[in-house]
Amino acid sequence: MSIYSGVEGVSRIYRIGLVLVACWALLTSTPAHGSSDEWRTWTSKAGSQLEAKLVKRSGDQLELQRRSGGKPVILKLSQLSADDQQYVRELPEPEEEKGATSVSGVDAEPGVVSGEIKCLSESRWSYYLYLPESFHTAREWPVMLIMSPGGGKTSNPMNRYREVADRLGVVLVLSVQSKNGFGESGLCNTTILNDVYDRLPLHSNLAMTTGFSGGSRCAYLVAELDKRVAGVLACGSGHGIYPDSGPARSAKLRKSTYVYSLIGTNCFNRSEATVTHNLLSKNFRLRFFPSGHSWAGSPYIEEGMARLLGEAFMAHRSSTEKSDRDRYSKVMWQWTQEMVDDQPWEAHGWAEFLADFDGDSQVKSDAKSLANKLAGNDKVKQAQLAEKDIIKFVSKHYNKYIALDVEKKPNSSRAAEGEKLADKYPGLPHAELLEKLAAKIGK
């Protein structure tokens, strides 16, 4: 098999000053979610003042009702004075308007893995379904399609993703028939994706695919075949695929498709994963974990899935709701803070990402401050250097794709180089990665 490069609303907020309130239509006085019954004097950054009350809040967008009547004022939180911004932030979070927690004709409930569900258009294809605990029908949800090399004989492969699916609010789908050596994986999995889109309220630009080994190759294949797929979380393979017809080849991905790869340090596909990422965008992440050819642990999968969803939101921010992006950024900000003590380098990376993410304005500000603070952390500096050394090392030693790259004997010069690099990073997990990357590959 040869490897080659085949990589291919929010409503507008009217930016007007508080002095232009007379041009808006009268709003009902019934308080809305995120509102306040308090009449108060609001002050803009420019010094303009208005006697009004907050009747609706959606993320950073506010609606104020003027005490003297007239049409509502719609503005961003950032247009207000610092005192007024603080007042709004201290109000209770607006409740999300929720719909039903069940879908007619779908035997599934939030927080529980369903039984096997057959596709309506073709009953020979089936899947397991997991609706996150917060699922309801009043908004559209991201979805992740999971494929296992052994097929979905049980729903077990889904368990690696359930906790983060609840945290981020992602629907999970596990393909039953898709497996290694299966000649109709493309047809099977695109039919499954169509079926869940027909049945559930899913966002058309927030689909993701994932899998391990042959399942990872299926994830790449579906990303090529279906424009709704915004990202691939690949584990244990590069982007070599086996189409339903024709010879094996590299996946032809759209340029907007984000790839986050997880590969064991001693996996026999590590050269393929390395070559794949050398051909893809430098913004994509190739992340090694200490293992042979195996699924990555849940912490790696969870961060990969979170990054994929964030990248999907950014790539399609014009067609996603601001409230959904705000929700994501708040969840990830809390998660980032949880990483600071044990993995400050990962916290720094997430803080930089959230500082640029089009989400909650307070999160953006806080994330920028944390990123600046952690930039001076010695462990962060060392980890950044180690990450660069890892990529340089694998690009040097695994820059040629070899199918089932299993070595018969150790490479002594490579081992010495890896150990020397590892000695630079005592106390960091990157040292173990470098040592294992230097060792021979085994099955």
Question: What tags apply to this protein structure?
Answer:
443 residues; alpha/beta; SH3 type barrels; Rossmann fold; 3 domains; 8-stranded mixed β-sheet; 4-stranded antiparallel β-sheet; 12 helices; 14 strands; 36% helix; flat; disordered N terminus
Structure, explained:
With 443 residues, the chain is an alpha/beta fold. A hairpin with a 7-residue loop joins strand 5 and strand 6. It is built from twelve helices and 14 strands. The chain has helices at residues 82-89, 159-168, 185-199, 214-225, 270-279, 298-315, 322-339, 344-356, 361-374, 378-397, 412-422, 429-438, and strands at 40-43, 49-58, 61-66, 73-76, 117-118, 126-130, 141-147, 171-175, 202-212, 229-235, 240-241, 249-250, 258-264, 285-289. Helix 7 (322-339) runs antiparallel to helix 8 (344-356). The protein folds into three domains: 18-89, SH3 type barrels, CATH 2.30.30.700; 117-320, 3-Layer(aba) Sandwich (Rossmann fold), CATH 3.40.50; 378-438, no CATH class. It starts with 39 loop residues before the first strand and ends in a 5-residue tail after the last helix. The protein has an eight-stranded mixed sheet with strand order 5-6-8-7-9-10-13-14, with helices on both faces. Strands 1-2-3-4 form a four-stranded antiparallel sheet, with no helix packed on it. A two-stranded antiparallel sheet has the order 11-12.
